Amino acid sequence: TQLLEQSPQFLSIQEGENLTVYCNSSSVFSSLQWYRQEPGEGPVLLVTVVTGGEVKKLKRLTFQFGDARKDSSLHITAAQPGDTGLYLCAGAPDTGNQFYFGTGTSLTVIP
Amino acid sequence: DAGITQSPRHKVTETGTPVTLRCHQTENHRYMYWYRQDPGHGLRLIHYSYGVKDTDKGEVSDGYSVSRSKTEDFLLTLESATSSQTSVYFCAISETVYGYTFGSGTRLTVV
Fold it and tell me: Are the CB atoms for A25 and A93 separated by under 8 Å?
């Protein structure tokens, strides 16, 4: 059982479409991070959210941390082929000191 | 701008042989981590270090050992490689809990 569940697992969309991916848990997290990983490379940190209800924007990407700090979402506006990759959420729950990664959402944007 | 490098990038080894993977950082970060990434499991922590000679086990540490004799180097050793250890191995560094920097990974195949 994964502490962080991501959905959908796979997503294939046309260039220009909007999409949202989700990261959910039954545990409370002090912070959550989002990474993007391209084939053959390591994950690259996109953003860290630390406050319940926080919204952060990175160009066409909008990240939200749930009010209860148990979930997060990533919304991409007008997706481009360069957005293709594996999106991972990660964080440490308030209880314990382990850091966990979700299994990821694999996004393909078709030109 | 590689502040973290992994070597080798690819390795094929035979069952039962010892294998050592190297992670080198130039960022002087305190924390270093070894993860493995497998389909369906995401990234799982093998071992981590919080300083020179200070290491601890992660979620999937059986069959692996680590050493950190210098701040910049973190070695992962598979004492006697098995086919179940075929995976992509990532090293990561951090100074705080607010984000990891990953290396480009080592693809290990045990035949």
Answer: yes
How open is the CA angle B41-B44-B48, to the nearest 5 degrees? 175
The tens digit of pLDDT for each residue in A21-48 reads 999 999 999 889 999 999 999 999 999 9
Chain B nearest C-alpha distance from A9 (Å): 10
Query: Is there a cis peptide before residue B8, judged by omega within 30 degrees of 0?
Result: yes
Write down the pLDDT at residue A96: 65
B41-80 b/e (C-beta count within 10 Å ≥ 16 → b): ebbbbbbbbeeeeebeebebbeebbbebeeebebbbebee
Evaluate whether B35 touches B90 at the Cβ level (below 8 Å). Answer: yes
Strands B106-110 and B10-13, bridge-based pairing = parallel
Whether residue B97 and residue A30 make contact (CB cut-off 8 A), yes or no, is: yes
Q: Does B90 touch chain A (CB under 8 A)?
A: yes
